[in-house]
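Q: I'm teaching a short session on how sequence maps to structure, and I want students to see two examples side by side rather than one. Could you give me a first protein with its sequence written out and its structure tokens following it? Keep the formatting plain so it prints cleanly on a handout.
A: Of course. Example one:
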Amino acid sequence: MSTGGCSRLSSGLKEVLDRNYLSIPGFSTVYSKIVIITDRDEAETELNFIQQMKDALNEYSVICDNELENDRWIKCKMPTEIKEEVEFAFLLFIIPFE
């Protein structure tokens, strides 16, 4: 989905996580891979995006196997509304890399 700008990326992620939260595991409504792609404007942009994504993931009680960083897939899981668990892979892709 398009979020309408980098300032709205965390809102877009929350929409996706909300859909996973309301989904029943094993059904096609669960997002199994989530990718956030954006460009960077300044040197500190990467740290800001990472923190925004962490905050959104924490809001939905997402547990990830590794620390969130740029250009690295991580495995995550979260509870659903019916207390089931859904798993997904997450990638934050900020370009250019340097």
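Q: Perfect. Now a second example for contrast.
A: Example two:
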Amino acid sequence: MKHSTPKRRDSFEMLEEALQSGWSSLETIPLKGEGEFLVLTVSGLVRLARNGKTYRKPRRADAYGPERTTVNSVKTGNYLGAMAWRWPIGADRA
């Protein structure tokens, strides 16, 4: 019996859905020292992160994924490729 091939993850589609559901674009991502926030990564994960940069310069969209920037994971310190961001629920920010 054959099984159906699962649909491949589409990061462009994930970004579009995230922006429609209240996530913010990279033009407003917090800079170094502005706190911790949730990011949607190119791989589809949601992680708590902080920005190590004092400027915003996202990488342009290409065949591998949409516009993205590098941030640092709070838990592990690893680099993450962020496509969208939002403040955590219960944060004291607007």
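Q: What should students look for in example two?
A: Point them to this: The chain has a mean pLDDT of 89. Also worth mentioning: DSSP finds one helix and four strands in the chain.
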